[in-house]
Amino acid sequence: MDFMFKLVLQTTLDRKLTAIAERHVPQLEGRGSLEQRYSDSKDFFETSVWALKDMLKEAYDLGQVDRGYTTIDMLRKHVSPVNGVVMRYGDRVFVSDVIPEGGFCAYVYRFVGEPKPNGQDHEQRLSLETVADETFPDSGHAIEWCFAQA
Hints:
The protein is of the alpha+beta class. It has one domain. It is built from 5 helices and 5 strands. A 5-stranded antiparallel β-sheet has the order 1-5-4-3-2, with helices on both faces. 22% of the residues are buried.
């Protein structure tokens, strides 16, 4: 895996962790990152234990995705609600999402076992098959790359 691709994956992970935190800690909304700001009022917040539990659960699910095993439901939770795409195509699932530096990434997953009929496969396990080593100008081009892999 080349350096640029690793950087894109790390930046995508940072963005996703920030999004998880912003959903559960209102004071973080609009902060943009979880980087240290060297100020107690900007770096320390009170939060509930149930919000902490929910954040940890979402981060765990994200780790499952990064390990290569996931479900359609988990993928949908971790792509951008506006620009992300999770799409079933036969025995595969195509994923595209926007990345912070600009552009879109693309992933192809394959069902583990026989896929269930449409509408019943959202909790069936998927295995990561391939990841684009390039970025795309929009989700259409990213999904086009996914079709070329199928």
